Amino acid sequence: MSSERADRGAAYMATLDPGLEGALRKGMAPIAPDFADMMVEFGYGEMMSRPGLDPKSRQFVTLGILAGLGHPVDQLKGHINGALSVGITPKEIVEALMQVAIYAGFPAATNALRVAKRVFAERGVSPLPSSGEN
Amino acid sequence: MSSERADRGAAYMATLDPGLEGALRKGMAPIAPDFADMMVEFGYGEMMSRPGLDPKSRQFVTLGILAGLGHPVDQLKGHINGALSVGITPKEIVEALMQVAIYAGFPAATNALRVAKRVFAERGVSPLPSSGEN
Amino acid sequence: MSSERADRGAAYMATLDPGLEGALRKGMAPIAPDFADMMVEFGYGEMMSRPGLDPKSRQFVTLGILAGLGHPVDQLKGHINGALSVGITPKEIVEALMQVAIYAGFPAATNALRVAKRVFAERGVSPLPSSGEN
Amino acid sequence: MSSERADRGAAYMATLDPGLEGALRKGMAPIAPDFADMMVEFGYGEMMSRPGLDPKSRQFVTLGILAGLGHPVDQLKGHINGALSVGITPKEIVEALMQVAIYAGFPAATNALRVAKRVFAERGVSPLPSSGEN
Amino acid sequence: MSSERADRGAAYMATLDPGLEGALRKGMAPIAPDFADMMVEFGYGEMMSRPGLDPKSRQFVTLGILAGLGHPVDQLKGHINGALSVGITPKEIVEALMQVAIYAGFPAATNALRVAKRVFAERGVSPLPSSGEN
Amino acid sequence: MSSERADRGAAYMATLDPGLEGALRKGMAPIAPDFADMMVEFGYGEMMSRPGLDPKSRQFVTLGILAGLGHPVDQLKGHINGALSVGITPKEIVEALMQVAIYAGFPAATNALRVAKRVFAERGVSPLPSSGEN
Where is the signal peptide (chains A, B, C, D, E, F) (predicted)? Predict the structure, then answer.
């Protein structure tokens, strides 16, 4: 019945991370499989995949919200990864997260940058010039 | 001594709103003029004007942080205005703020959209097709 | 296509406040009518109207979230009103909001109680014994 | 002097978890034993044990506050456990926490559901039908 | 029964603002008089009046919490007033609130400084050198 | 060019923890060395080292913000350590963090006290009388 939404959501999720939908569904299976459906169908299928805003801009908004709130660390990690996947550069991610210091304080920015550091290490990318100072 | 930072900050602020620096300095004059200096010199002159991220993307991050936190209403209003000034369309702003519902809840998104409605009315713009809303 | 969800959402909203859906749609009409659809169809039609939890308990959860976050004042007002509509007594609402002090601090509880005072006055109800307060 | 409050608080805590008071007092003993007293005497003895709201409803409010705030993970874990103890079913807890997505965003709800998953596993209960779909 | 706590709380409140207890009790009378009792007896009588920390330091902690959270505007206003009453200078208050920018962002600090500006105006004090502001 | 700010910031940081600047620079080196500069030069060199407020009072404000927000756990740990370094006693720190319960809820206070317990253990200090009751 809701397969169109689900397909569109799954497709959007795959652009962020091919394993995202599977991990979400697996994590929620023993407790709230309907919640995973909602994430896929509504979160990604109805909202994030709307045509009025490009995926890069959506990721910048998402990074801002998650880093500003501070507590959703796993989601921030996932969306830093997703930001890389939609073509945002490591340097742009770092700039976005540094900027969090102005609007939500240095601790929120610092902790977000630490999360980014872990994601970058896992993906083997760096925001620094290749000659790699420091 | 810090005139280069101040000039760069003032120039960046002017791209968001020609009256922004003046309003900030006037508001802080009777209580904390140094704080206005910090906003101009550090906030805008050192951080926001860094070349590594374009102004549109910075505004998307800022909208995300402010709408997600929920309480900084005046700053959200100012940065929705600034988003329009750097070329983000009303429709893109609406999409960005709708998306806040996913990551910070519908109330945060609803209240942010209401602020946008006021800014759009003041500037005489609309996110809806010209043939009319709904 | 989504009429079943929309109908179920509208019906649930009506149990909280007969004017809620209309006010939501009117407020969002000039800026984000799709967002109103999402609230009705997803928020109320898919989530809040799920059969696994009774409406009173859902309102208690909602009061806790909104009062704890502190910034969504209009939504808290609406859901205090909705709590009365689904049969929660004024006294129970007061008890729930007082309890917010333990988990989110006295200021959050105080401000929520002030909102409740306004709602109770509008509806002509009181949490105190009829012989009078204090 | 405050033994009546302390007794009432201890009794209420025991209904949530027989080991709760002991764990609290042990944890605070080397640093702030008075703080443990306040939790028992004021938090539970004066506030939570008030007769005007039943323990189930109090737990729903508490789950809403803690899941909405996002950062008090240990307390959320404790109160999910307490919710089970006062007779809220695993399925009702899941419904309550899913609903957090509407008012505080999907990340807050997701993280709360993950905490519930751990509590359910520890207590050997499940919110799903026993045939265990998904 | 609890008169010692109540007296101690009332005395502490009076050092912050002679009208504080009365305003609190009056505001809560029609809805939650017990909550006012708790504020006086527990909040001020048991916690704030503890001898282990001087009133000035307690006000600095309180200003940090309230300004950092951002949403409790009325309470921040009250405690800026209370800070003046216990001998913190307008300039020290401004410094404390400016510092909020580092740990919770410039918007939180800006909004707190605006509240301070109103309190200072009401009390006829200024944080600036008497020869005048910048 | 900014060496005066940097020197002043580094000197202030050293009063909190001789290893603080080095740890910050090392942590940010692979991802955002400019961000470490900003922390040293602006955060500590321009803001925290301002003469208008003594270091103890600044630490009380900082403890309030960080404990109230709840999510910046590492920063809270660092600033509890810094509080000890500028001469705030373990007992005063405990009092300040207990007080967080009034303004931001018991969970925020409890978690902050747990962080303090770890810092005190690492530094071999205690807030309790040496005979160690409780």
Answer: none
CB contact under 8 A, D46 and E42: yes
Which among B101, B105, B127 has the least Cβ separation from residue C31?
Answer: B127
Of B57, B72, B92, the CB nearest to A92: B57
Query: What token pair was written down for C61?
Result: 């959860």
Domain extent, residue F88, equals 54-134
Q: How far apart are the first and last CA of chain B?
A: 55
Residue A80 lies in a domain: yes
pTM: 0.96
Tell me, yes or no, whether B17 lies in a domain. Answer: yes
Mutate one of C31, C40, C66, C111 to test the B interface: name it (highest B CB count within 10 A). Answer: C31
Residue contact A31–D120, C-beta within 8 A: yes
Q: Rounded to whole angstroms, how far apart are CA atoms C15 and C2?
A: 20
- Same domain for D119 and D60: yes
Using an 8 Å CB-CB cutoff, list chain D residues near F114: 27
F86, F55 in Cβ contact below 8 A? yes
- A18 and A66 inside one domain: no
Show which of E52, E77, E92 is a domain's final residue: E52
ipTM: 0.95
Burial E26-38 (b: 16+ CB within 10 A, else e): ebbebbbebbbbb
Instruction: Examine the pLDDT at D43 and tell me if it is beyond 70.
Output: yes
Chain B residues whose CB is inside 8 A of the E117 CB are 27, 30-31
Q: Measured between alpha carbons, how far is C121 from C132 in angstroms, rounded to an integer? A: 15
* Same structural domain, F58 and F118: yes
Query: D60 and D44 in one domain?
Result: no
Q: Is residue E20 over pLDDT 50?
A: yes
The nearest CA of chain E is from the CA of B97 a distance in Å of 18
**pLDDT (0 to 100) of residue C134:** 41
State the total domains in chain A.
2
What is the residue whose two structure tokens read 């009751």? F133
Kindly list the partner chains of chain B, i.e. chains with 3 or more CB atom pairs below 8 Å: A, C, D, E, F
In three-state form (DSSP H/G/I as H, E/B as E, the rest C), the secondary structure along chain C is CCHHHHHHHHHHHHHHCCCHHHHHHHHHCCCCHHHHHHHHHHHHHHHHCCCCCCHHHHHHHHHHHHHHHCCCHHHHHHHHHHHHHCCCCHHHHHHHHHHHHHHHCHHHHHHHHHHHHHHHHHHCCCCCCCCCCC
Q: What is the pLDDT of residue D130?
A: 73
A97/chain D closest Cα distance in angstroms: 18
CATH code, E73: 1.20.1290.10
Same domain assignment for residues D102 and D118: yes
Tens of pLDDT, residues A59-82: 999 999 999 999 999 999 999 999
Task: Say if the Cβ atoms of B111 and C74 lie within 8 Å.
Answer: yes
Asked whether residue B134 is assigned to any structural domain, the reply reads: no
